[in-house]
Sequence to fold (451 residues):
Amino acid sequence: MIWLRRSLLSRIFLGFLSSVILASLFHLVLITGLTHLGALNFSLESRLRRALRVEAPTLVAAYERQGPKGLRLALHRLRITRKLKALLLDQEGIPLVGSRFSRDQDRRHGPRRRQPLPSVTGTFSGPSGREYVVVVFALPGALPTGDSQYASMAAYVTAFLLAGSTVSYLLARRIARPVTALRKASAALAAGDLSVRVGVWAGCGDELAQLAVNFDTMADRVQRTVTAQRRFLGDISHELRSPLSRMNLSLELLRPELSDRGIELVDRMERESAGMDELIGSLLNLARWEGEVADHRWESVNLEDALEQAVRDGRFGAKGSDRDVVLGEVPPVTVFVEPRLLRSALDNLIENGLAHSPPGTTVEVRAQLINGEFPSIQLFVEDRGPGVPHADLNAIFSPFFRGDIDHDHHGLGLGLAIVQRSVERLNGSVQAENRADGGLSVRIDLPCRIQ
Fold:
């Protein structure tokens, strides 16, 4: 019994079985009710009475218009086509035609029949107003009209479809509801919402409920792991920054007492310390972007002004490197974004482009508007560097990924990871591709609200 209650397969089987049983019961109730109301009657007497109501006016009219000859033709047709025998009597009960024929027929068939033919009698008025008595007999082999059989078949099919579709719909909804919840929860988890849970549906203990429990267990474990990783990343960065600050202070106090060779070594130590401080700052930024950010303030930003400011800052940082940052075509639109996140993404992309571009080249920043039902903005930052191997185009957005290119560049491998986190916080996406004429093109797609 536990298997029947909890197994998904058994529930589907019992559901369809219940559908068939319910359809049969519904059909039985429907036919019984229609028969009780008189809409359906499958008895021989009922069929004979329907034949009497249909054929009697024809017989009476044939007699009054064409006389005995017309009545005989009508009786013969009725006998051939419907296997029915009829007698037309006057008000005194005397057959108008066919009395001898009837007696002969009764005499001929009498020895072979144990019981009389089923018959019904009715009184009908002719076109002249005269009343007649019509008697209809069912001959052996007489078949009923197909109306009742068709009605029975239609009633059965209707009942089966109604009951079967109702039970099937309820069963499908029962199965689809948890599947839909799992689909939405998995999509939310993939989008970065680690707090999403499916929960357990009351009264359910089948495979889908167990799948929901497993999903929640997995999501809980992922959330704890990622939260611990983020906390560790932030804590270790703070812990490292404090001794670095004390070391830099000690080096500055030590510098006046050193020789030229000692000062050279101190300068080297300060450069390494500055690199370590940059690494710690990037780790803190990465931990902040990957953490729960609830204080983002979205506001309307002129896209051209935002890109111009980013280009000016990038050009200032490129002074003395024989590289430049230029602004390409930008549509005159105002977008609704979080300015700090957009600025962080642009600054890191420009810095990355300058770091990998050879002297005498430029990094171009441009944008284009994509019109449609859901307008969006595409931002491009393109350099003239060596590009990235095709297999690494997705991996470059992973933290600390540096690949096998440009070993002379001492980057930390965190800039593009911060770009991706910032863009994701803007509900956008970022992807990179190699340019046909050399260099790397990074595109940011922002489904921003155009104002």
Summary: The longest helix spans residues 207-254.
